Amino acid sequence: MSINVVGEWLDVIYKVLTGIFVIWLYFDRRNDKTLARVTKLEGHIDDKLDTMEKRLDEQLDDHSERLVKVESDLRNQPKHEDLGKIYDEMRKVSESIAGMASNLSGQKAMLEGLEKQVSRMDTFWRTHSN
User: How far apart are CA 97 and CA 40, in angstroms?
Assistant: First the structure.
């Protein structure tokens, strides 16, 4: 092989390597732009996720406060046994009122009878007093 043939082969190899380098550089730069867009998008998504996380934390805090209040209110509510005692007391009061009503109707009848006797006596004394 002569030097000219070797020189031509080196020139071809150089051009092929240069072409491969240009193609690699094109894809690398394209990858850099894609990477920059992806990085920017990741930042945007991270900001959105942080905002959502803060909002959810606030809502969860609000819910936990409300749950604590509801649980506290439930602890202070009357139990079934307490309501049973109240109903028993209400029955006793109702029975007492019924007894008082019958007693008052008896007293009413007695007072009406007394009123009739007093009225008869009054009429008798007015007519026979002269």
Answer: 82
